[in-house]
Design goal:
nine-stranded parallel beta sheet; alpha/beta; globular; 12 helices
Length: 277
């Protein structure tokens, strides 16, 4: 059944969190990192560990906005045989036991085009995906995907950079739904930490142009940084730090060890406790 973008799980989750008086913890991990079973175990465990929304990376061979940590996570997923169909199957498996936690797919346009943009939106919605972050698809070029996404109730979540000025902001935000992803640093993911004072200054001008929730990502690594980001905005997105925690738990051959899932979920719990404090 077709849904209406902006009226699904993402909107309900942010409304519930607003009623609780706190921001969201949004977690990112790449699909099939380091293998399908471990990735699926992590996905199932994230809500219980405190993730309010889940981003799943769609690994791609040329991830131009990803820093080293997320690139390596994607490479492990590709080595493990990840496919678009396999990623969607993971979401379906999650939905068999969790119909509430919003799931966003994050990645690049090329794999979507290879799958077929209309088919992708149809299958993503049927699998239980709620939103899409397509890093290399600016609003001016979104016509290839946006109509299919809207028809199937998939939110297209836009990235707003520190360099987005007053003229650019309305262009980006008018094409957004779900929430707005504020990129806290210029450059690729996970390479620098966000400046707390700069974040506090950056969010109010964005609110002048949108009523959507705003989440801060790129450069949010520690529980303290996540807590600050969730206070000055509506949520903190943490990805590289979780990819690093996962990588550090693997054996010398890059395989999961018995404590890999626990290590990563413990890191999520620490972030969640700080955001909720």
């Amino acid at each position: 059944m077709d849904r209406t973008a902006g009226e699904g799980r993402i909107a309900r989750r942010f409304a519930a969190l607003k009623a609780q008086g706190r921001g969201a913890l949004v977690t990112f991990l790449s699909a099939y990192d380091p293998d399908r079973k471990t990735s699926m175990d992590l996905l199932r465990g994230l809500p219980g560990a405190g993730a309010d929304l889940i981003e799943i990376g769609m690994p791609f061979s040329d991830p131009m906005a990803d820093g080293p940590s997320v690139q390596r996570a994607g490479q492990r997923g590709l080595k493990a045989g990840v496919t678009m169909a396999g990623t969607l199957a993971m979401v379906r498996d999650l939905r068999a036991e969790d119909d509430a936690t919003p799931v966003i797919l994050m990645g690049y346009l090329n794999p979507i085009l290879a799958y077929g943009e209309e088919r992708f939106c149809t299958d993503a919605a049927a699998s239980g995906v709620d939103g899409l972050i397509v890093v290399d698809m600016p609003p001016e070029e979104a016509g290839i995907l946006a109509p299919h996404a809207a028809r199937h109730g998939l939110d297209i979540i836009r990235l707003v950079a520190p360099t987005s000025d007053a003229a650019r902001l309305p262009v980006v935000l008018n094409a957004s739904s779900g929430f707005v992803y504020y990129v806290a640093i210029t450059g690729i993911t996970g390479t620098r930490s966000a400046d707390p004072a700069a974040l506090a200054r950056a969010i109010p001008p964005i609110r002048e142009h949108t009523g959507l929730p705003i989440c801060i990502g790129f450069g949010i690594r520690t529980p303290e940084q996540a807590a600050h980001a969730a206070r000055v905005s509506d949520g903190a997105v943490v990805g590289s730090a979780l990819c690093d925690a996962l990588a550090a738990s693997l054996d010398e051959q890059g395989r999961a060890k018995p404590d890999t899932v626990r290590v990563v979920l413990d890191a999520v719990r620490a972030l969640a406790e700080a955001v909720r404090a």
